[in-house]
Amino acid sequence: MNARGAVTTCSLVICVGSVWAVFAQRQQLAIVRAGRQQLPITTDEGYAAPTAGQSQERQSDSTNSEELLRLRSEVTRLNARKRELTGIVEENQRLRTQLENSRTNAAGDSQLPEGYIRKTQAHFAGYSTPENTFQSLLCALRDHDGPMLLQSLTPGAAQRLQARFQDPSQETQFFKDMDAMPGLALQNRKEQPDGSVQFEVEIVPGMPKQTMRLQMISGQWKLNAPF
Q1: What letters, b where the CB count within 10 A reaches 16 and e where it falls short, cover 48-81?
Q2: What is the pLDDT of residues 124-171, one digit of tens each?
Q3: Fewest CB within a 10 Å sphere: which of 3, 15, 24, 90?
Q4: Would you say residue 6 lies in a domain?
Q5: Within this chain, do residues 101 and 198 fall inside the same structural domain, yes or no?
């Protein structure tokens, strides 16, 4: 081989080596870039920025935390409402028990005050005396007899009660409320200067008394009831 051939062969070998080196560097650079894409991005502060998947997970966690707090608040509110309703139910039961005890006590003769008129034993007695008017009143209340009840009252009291009875539900509720009334006792009768008669009326033994007045109208005694 002459000198020119040797030089040409060496140049060809060097050229091929250079091309191979460049190709190898590009492959290494591609591998490095691919690795960086799989790693989280690091910011200047030195921590890795979250990837898209991590951001979605954190957003989901935040939403779940807010929903949990809302549910806890709702449970707290419902528990407070439950305690309020429990108190109302207990108070209602206490009042019912007190009323039942009063009615039970009223059922025994030894527990009734003098002159006590039981509603279960009341009868229509007309209106010739104040006592008869109360008998007729109790009879009307027991039988839910609206017309008889109105006949026992003064015109003003009857007009007020009749206005309430324009609504049938109001009339039904009125007699339902009066069902709890066991009877009454007439005490401390007092003649008034205007000719009316006033009584202290004890409805349930041991409970506060009520003042009721009757007036003579057209020869009949009528109750000026506070209905």
Answers
A1: eeeeeeeeeeeeeeeeeeeeeeeeeeeeeeeeee
A2: 999 999 999 999 999 999 999 999 999 999 999 999 999 999 999 999
A3: 3
A4: no
A5: no
